[in-house]
UniProtKB/TrEMBL annotation:
One of its GO terms (molecular function) is RNA binding. It holds the Pfam family NusB. One of its GO terms (biological process) is DNA-templated transcription termination. It comes from Mesonia algae. It comes from the Bacteria. This is NusB antitermination factor.
Length: 313
């Protein structure tokens, strides 16, 4: 689920929290980083399960409508297209997802089902839903496109859901952009021919999990030396004038230059420029690019960078 860029963002957030708290307990902060990444995975699973619970809420609504004393013909013969959505059906019957939800005891939508109802009401009133029901098409692709659309237009930007998640876990606010992007990527990749929905793991492999911890630890343990190198390239800047996030991104990038021989210099620079564009000031990417370009050239000439493999410089 987590890409290397996502991992870098999580490390950046933990570094920022560490700096703001003035805490010097590295082990405690490392555990917090690991816990934070685990809780982000919980949010991913919950948002995936939310799609199933909204479908269940729709099914309850239609069943109750059929039992009305003065039920209309439409109530008696409801359109079941959403209830029978092929992608939702695959997700609902995923043993993999069910086991993960049970193991982690993620029962939020059963305990707080009013938020499921809020989403269902918005879906029900939307033009997207009405168009979907009246469409003559009936295919897995159409079902998938509908689910992707309601997730993007109704679920992801929902303010009440946002407030609920904020109340449950404050760190989830920072995680939402990554989680929502991961959900959409997961939905888009799902194919009708796949025999069963396989929920992605938090980390692609053991190396990525180790990368998160090592990047966090090595950046913190070596940050004083990295700050000195940054100050040499910004002689007219007081260190307090450099945005907090920019300072952290610079230190993390330098750490990758020096301590991660298998990661190409260009990859490191490009990754932190993209993160800066999303999480820092409008001018941050230009500032960071200038510093990293100067430092990388200096490190190469002094042989401080020792990359392994062809084309890694």
């Amino acid at each position: 689920m987590l890409t290397r860029r996502h991992i870098r963002v999580k490390v950046m957030q933990s570094m920022y929290a560490f700096t703001q708290s003035a805490n010097d307990n590295l082990i405690a902060e490392q555990k917090f980083l690991q816990k934070s990444m685990g809780e982000m995975y919980d949010l991913f699973l919950l948002n995936l399960d939310l799609l199933v619970q909204v479908k269940n809420k729709a099914q309850d609504y239609l069943e109750k409508s059929q039992k009305k004393h003065l039920a209309t013909n439409e109530d008696k013969n409801p359109n079941l297209k959403f209830i029978q959505n092929k992608l939702i059906h695959k997700i609902e019957h995923s043993e993999n997802l069910s086991e993960l939800l049970d193991d982690k005891k993620l029962t939020n939508w059963q305990q707080d089902d009013e938020y499921v109802n809020i989403i269902w009401e918005e879906v029900k009133q939307s033009e997207t839903y009405k168009d979907y029901l009246t469409s003559d098409l009936s295919s897995f692709q159409e079902d998938k496109e509908f689910i992707i659309t309601i997730f993007k237009e109704i679920i992801a930007p929902n303010d009440k859901l946002y407030d609920y998640l904020e109340d449950k876990k404050l760190t989830w606010l920072d995680d939402l952009p990554i989680v929502n992007t991961s959900i959409l990527k997961f939905l888009k990749k799902e194919k009708e021919a796949n025999p069963e929905v396989k929920v992605p793991k938090l980390f692609k492999n053991r190396e990525d999990e180790e990368f998160a911890i090592e990047l966090f630890r090595k950046t913190l343990l070596n940050q004083e030396a990295y700050v000195e190198d940054i100050q040499e390239k910004t002689p007219n800047w007081d260190k307090d004038r450099i945005a907090g996030v920019d300072s952290i991104l610079l230190k993390m990038a330098i750490c990758e230059f020096m301590k991660f021989p298998s990661i190409p210099v260009k990859v490191t620079i490009n990754e932190y420029l993209e993160i800066a564009k999303e999480y820092s000031t409008p001018k941050s990417s230009v500032f960071i690019n200038g510093i990293l370009d100067k430092l990388s050239k200096e490190y190469k000439s002094s042989e401080k960078i020792n990359k392994i493999g062809r084309g890694l410089m």
